[in-house]
Fold this protein.
Amino acid sequence: QVQFVESGGGLVQTGGSLGLSCAASGSTFSSDAMGWYRQAPGKTREFVAAISQSGGNTNYADSVKGRFTISRDNAKRTVYLQMNSLKPEDTAVYYCNAVIGLSGRYQKYGYWGQGTQVTVSS
């Protein structure tokens, strides 16, 4: 069974930066496009960013475009999310999943890891 383990979250002030990691096991990682999602308290999970299998193509939600960067290392079976210029509205639990296409609409797997909490203080 595929497992995703997210890490790197924490507490940061407005304008600060954080780098998240998602390690995948039990899957053909290099054959999957990957995506990051987030869920804030009381809200539904939303798409943040996606990256193609080779890393050559990416897509971002408008709310994070220009501030977040998604990348991957297929040898390490890990996808990253570098978050800069953080805002209080970025506060959420962040998750990763394999995706079908880069729109973020379709996840390959119907389950999620434990996520990693990001809290941005004002």
In short: The chain has a mean pLDDT of 96. The radius of gyration is 13 Å. The chain is about 0% helix and 50% strand. The CA atoms of residues 10 and 102 lie 27 Å apart.
